[in-house]
Design brief:
mainly alpha
Length: 60
């Protein structure tokens, strides 16, 4: 893993947020509510994970 203070929890958070973006990307053109809701849940999990593990502290 690259970086000076990078922790695995930071990468998990990034993967969750990217996965949510991909789900939303598929949900919008297909007008799929289940995919949009799943994307929202994954995004919320990524935001909570980032806040709990304080990933922004890795940058300093």
């Amino acid at each position: 893993m690259a970086g000076h203070n990078v922790r695995p929890t930071s990468w998990v958070t990034v993967v969750l947020i990217v996965a949510a973006s991909v789900l939303f990307g598929f949900a919008l053109p297909q007008h799929s509510w289940p995919l949009a809701i799943a994307g929202g849940i994954v995004l919320l999990a990524g935001i909570v994970t980032g806040a709990v593990y304080r990933i922004m502290d890795d940058a300093y």
